[in-house]
Structure formats: structure tokens, C-alpha cells
Amino acid sequence: MINKEIARILYDISEILKLRNVQWKPQAYNKAARVIEDLEKDLKEIYEEKGLQGLDEIPSIGRGIAKKIEEYLKTGRIKEYEKLKKSVPKGLVEIMNITGIGPKRAQLLFKKLKIKSIADLERAVKNHKIEKLERFGEKSEKDIKEEIEFFKKRNKNRMLLGDALDLAEKITGKLKAKKIMICGSIRRMYETIGDIDILAVADENLVDDFCKLADRVLAKGSGKTSIIIGDRQIDLRVVPREDFWSGVHYLTGSKDHSVELRKIAIKKRMKLNEYGLFRVEKKIERRVAGESEEEIYRRLGMQYIPPELRENRGEIEAAIKKKIPKLINYNDIKGDLHIHTKYSDGNNSILEMVSGAKKLGYSYVGISDHSQTRKIAGGLSERDLIKEIKEARKIKISGIKVLIGSEVDILGDGSLDYSDEVLKKLDYAIGSIHSGFKGDVTKRILRAMENKYMNILAHPTGRMIQSRKGYELKFDEVLRIAKETKTLLEINAHPERLDLRDEMIKAAVENGNKLIIGTDAHSVDGLRHIRLGIGQARRGWATRNNIVNTLSLNKLKKIFRK
Ligand code: DGT
Ligand code: CA
Ligand code: CA
Ligand code: ZN
Fold it and tell me: In 3D, which of 478, 530, 528, 533 has the Cα closest to residue 507?
């Protein structure tokens, strides 16, 4: 998790530099932070293997930032960062966590109202000081109030699913066990994770090896061992072989799901616990299931329920009626169409991204860089887009077809950020809302979907799991018009987005909308997050039929024609 720590510092540096009106550098730090976040390999490992050179070779990381990373790895701190932190009131960086407050507004609030913490800001809102400020006004004050509430509510102690899954796999990858499984909320692909739960049938040194990975051992025992890595807790439970699957079932939860199953077991004169399903007769218990999870559900008189559905949200009733659909599988995706390259704000070339997609076994891949209005993300002018199209059309790699699309901003009036003349040259267009969250976004989206060149609505709600609530949306309307105009709704698989979220996916599926899963990858490493999107699709009861990028390219192209 050292990557996460370092990325956070680089983000911080970027914010402070922005506050100090430094040009360009903030973007460089921001970009470096993002690359590091996406990186699969540990910076420490890279440094141990190849030294400073190794860090320098990471795309978007220049010598200067590489040296800072080295300093952190060696000393646990970055001097310049410590200095920078002292150069601005600490709270200013803090209040920039509130959506809608950037460096300019933060400075203004500090100058006019001496605001230097979120608490100060809250007080000012309460006393209606903000609405009187020039460049703010009543509406601003109300928005800030809402965003502060959102900021306070979000539980910063939970990890993003993507981070937790990476960490959990890193841990299990280093352990030797007869059987081992990541359970709990990760196995259910829940969007945020409290702690990591691992179940194993032990080999000799398992528990000791596990403890060696720890920064701190909380409890060590033959049954359950808990450790801390970074600021994260990982629980390892060890069970005898015959209890493995009943243990996996118990530890996968959710608790609500298990409690409901237990009630059903009792009605059938049975008992369900972490050791299996037992028939109770004259006080004698006999295990009737526990060899597999399938068996447990079968013996309870219901269909198997995949982990992603185990939230006690109607899945048990459905399983009794044999109404659990065949969910989309993790290997069903044939291509990823939401991909950024160096042309806009990505870190790899078109060729590198295409090769990366091929490695994942895809049969097609689509490039979708940002459009001209989105300048801070390196959005392409029409001329540059045409250049990109030309370059992409030249790429020929056997076994994978390259499509060229664009992630086009939906402008304030609902029009798209490129002329039809240019849109016509693309294989497909993704429409996105990136600004103007406070206006009537529904109206903009509806109008954009009427445009026959817009095939996909990206990250439909605009939320970021731990930092942004997203815009207000009349989702029913969006579903209706999307269906009517044959616009696909995206399940954005970026670890911070997961947008649409599970419940909305379910609503879309029930309404008969077509969906597409895209990673929004900004680097080759980012492509692997597709599984997070598939997990959300499964949590939303989606089958292969609901997700268009399970189709062959020919069939997909037919869907693109509006
Ligand atoms: P988290 O860690 O907050 O993201 O969520 P979980 O679901 O991983 O919850 P956690 O770590 O507290 O517990 C792991 C699993 O253990 C949980 O999914 C189901 C099971 N479990 C925990 N407490 C109970 C309980 O009181 N009753 C039952 N039946 N199962 C429990
Ligand atoms: Ca857990
Ligand atoms: Ca736990
Ligand atoms: Zn994107």
C-alpha cells in the first residue's frame, strides 16, 4: 500500500501548488499520482530491483518526482512536501476536498472570512456569511452546505473495492496454503470494504508467514489471526479441510443474508452455521451439507445464489422460486471501449493500450480520448482528433480490432463538443458530463441522447465513491429516453467511480436497457479494473444479454447504428 500513500502525498503537493498559483507543476504531480495509483507493482519493489532508474521509467514520472519517491522510500518523508505544507494554512487544502471549492475560492474564503478548516466553513455557512460574498451567492452557499454534509458522512475508514482486492490478492499470492479464499465484502464485490477476510486450510507455516507481512499483529491464534498492514486490518481464519466451504459461506456473508438463511433452516428443522448445514432430530445433529456452497443452497430448497447477490435484497425469495438469472461471467467481456491514451490525459500510446487489451484476450478495443472543451484533461481539438483517427486506423495487430471513438463532453445546452462532421468519422461516441453539475443535468443528457452520434452515456451519475455525490438526475427519464434512442448506459469500472452503481444497474436491467462495461483506463494497468465493473453488473442482476460488450464486434456495430 506504499503506492497509495505516495499517491496521496503527490496529490497533496499538487493541491498546494495549485493554491500557490504555480503553473503546470500541479498537473504533473496529479498525473504522476494517478499513474502510481493504477500501478500494479509496488514502488518499493520497483526501487529495490532497479533503483531510481526504475522509478524514472514509469510513464509520467520524471526525474524530479522519481527522486521525491526515492526520498520517501528511504526516509519515510519528503522534505519539500513538509515545507510546502507549512507554506499554506493547513485547512485550505482540507476545504478543497469540498466539491465546488478550488484553489481560487479557497483563497477567497481565507482572505475574506479567515476560513481555514472545514469546521470554519461550516460555521460560515450556518451564519449565512457565504451568500454575501462576491462570486458566491445563495445557491453556492446551499451547495457548499450539501457537499459538507456529504463529506462528513462518507466513511473514510473504508477502502475502495479495487484497492482492497489488490491488497488481498497480493497477500494471498504470498501465502502457501492447502486452500485459501478471499471472503467477506470483497467476495461480494461490494463497492467499499471495511476489513479483509481470508479463510484457509493451513499449510505448516501459514500463520507465521501471514504475520511476517504485518506492520502490526493484533491477535495471533490457531483459529483467527488479525494483522494490520498500513492502516488496514486483515483477518485470517484457519479451518480444517472439511469445514472449508461452510466456512467460506459463513465468512462471505452478508450477515443479513446469512441471518435470513438461518431462519429458513430453522423452519426446516435444520441448523446453519460456519460448520455446515445440520439436520436436528431428537437433539442429534447430522451434517447434511457443507462440502460446497451449492449443496447448502440445494438442501435449503433453493437455487444457488452467487456471492454478489447475497445482500438480502430479494435474492432469497428469487432463489426459492428458481428466478435467479444466469449472471454475466468474469470472462464474458470481449472488448473495452472506454480508454484514454497519451493523445489526451492517458499515460500510454494507442499501440500500448491496444497491446494491453490484446493481452487480456479481447477481440476488439476502442480508443476514447477527451474532447476539446475538456482542456485540463488534454481534450483534443477537431484537428488533433482527426490526426488521432488516422494514426489509430493504421494500427494492425492480429487478433484484435481497433475502433476509434471519443469521450465527448455534453455541453451546457446538451449539445456535443464536436461537430457532426467530425463525429461522423468516429466508430462511436461516448457522451459525458464533466462540468456544470449544479444545473439541470437531466435535461442536458436527454438532449444529448437524441443526437444520433452519441452511442454511450458514460458514468451516468457522475459520482465518485468517496469524494463526490454526483449530480441530481431523474433516472427514470434517463432510462426511458436511453431505451428509446438506443443509447447504451455505461457501467464505469474505474475503482473510484463504479457508476452506474448496483441498484441502478438492476433498475436498468428491469427496464430493458442495454449496458456496456468500460474501464476508463488511463494506463495499461487500468484495463484490469474491468472485473470491478463486471462485479457491479452481477450485483445488479445483469446477464450477458444485458451487457453489449459481451457481443462479437459485428453484432456490437449493429447496435451502434442508431
Ligand atoms: P466489511 O468488512 O464491513 O466490508 O463487510 P463484511 O461483510 O466483510 O463484514 P465483516 O468483515 O464484519 O464480517 C465478515 C463476514 O463474517 C460477514 O460478511 C458475515 C460474517 N459475519 C460477521 N458477523 C456475523 C454475525 O454476527 N452473524 C453472521 N451470521 N455472520 C457474521
Ligand atoms: Ca470484511
Ligand atoms: Ca472481518
Ligand atoms: Zn473517460
Answer: 478
The reply to whether ligand 1 has any atom less than 6 angstroms from the CB of 258 is yes
Q: Which atom of ligand 1 is the closest one to the Cα of 235? A: 11
Percent of the chain with pLDDT over 70: 99
Q: CA of 512: how far to CAs of 471, 498, 505, 508, in Å? A: 24, 20, 11, 6
Q: What is the pLDDT of residues 250-308, one digit of tens each?
A: 999 999 999 999 999 999 999 999 999 999 888 899 999 999 999 999 999 999 999 99
CATH among 2.60.40.1760, 2.60.40.420, 3.90.950.10, 3.20.20.140 for 335-560: 3.20.20.140
Note the CATH number of domain 261-320: 3.30.210.10
Best probe residue, ligand 1, of 246, 258, 261 (max atoms within 8 Å of C-beta): 258
Reply yes or no on whether the pLDDT at 155 is more than 70. Answer: no
Give me the count of residues in the chain: 562
The per-residue pLDDT for 89 is 81
Taking the centre of ligand 2 as the mean of its atom positions, its distance from the CA of residue 283, in whole angstroms, is 34
The atom number, within ligand 1, closest to the CA of 254 reads: 18
229 CA → ligand 3 middle, Å: 14
pLDDT (tens digit per residue) in 417-428: 999 999 999 999
Contact 457, 488 (CB under 8 A): yes
With a 6 Å cutoff on the Cβ, whether 254 touches ligand 1 is yes
C-alpha 498 to ligand 4 mean position (Å): 13
pLDDT of residue 40: 84
CB proximity list for 41: less than 8 A, separation 6 or greater: none
Q: Which fold has domain 159-238?
A: Beta Polymerase; domain 2 (3.30.460)
- DSSP-assigned letters across all residues of 327-338: BPPTT---EE--
What does the pLDDT look like over 35-84, one tens digit per residue? 998 888 889 999 999 999 999 999 889 999 999 999 999 998 999 998 98
Q: At what angle do helices 530-539 and 161-173 cross, to 10 degrees?
A: 110
Is residue 184 lining ligand 1, measured as CB closer than 6 Å? yes
Q: Whose CA is nearest to atom 26 of ligand 1?
A: 255
Please give the average per-residue pLDDT across 479-494, as a whole number.
98
Which CATH entry fits the domain spanning 92-153: 1.10.10.10, 1.10.150.20, 3.30.720.210, 3.40.228.10?
1.10.150.20
**Quick one: average pLDDT of 95-116?**
86
Q: Where are the alpha helices (DSSP H) in 363-406?
A: 382-394
User: What per-residue confidence (pLDDT) applies to 154?
Assistant: 62
Mean pLDDT, to the nearest integer, of 487-506? 98
CB of 59 within 6 A of ligand 1: the answer is no
For residue 500, cis peptide bond before it (omega within 30 degrees of 0): yes
Q: What single DSSP character describes residue 199?
A: E
The verdict on the CB of residue 194 being under 6 Å from ligand 1 is yes
Question: Ligand 1: distance of its center to the CA of 185 in Å?
Answer: 8
Rounded to whole angstroms, the Cα distance separating 514 from 548 reads 7
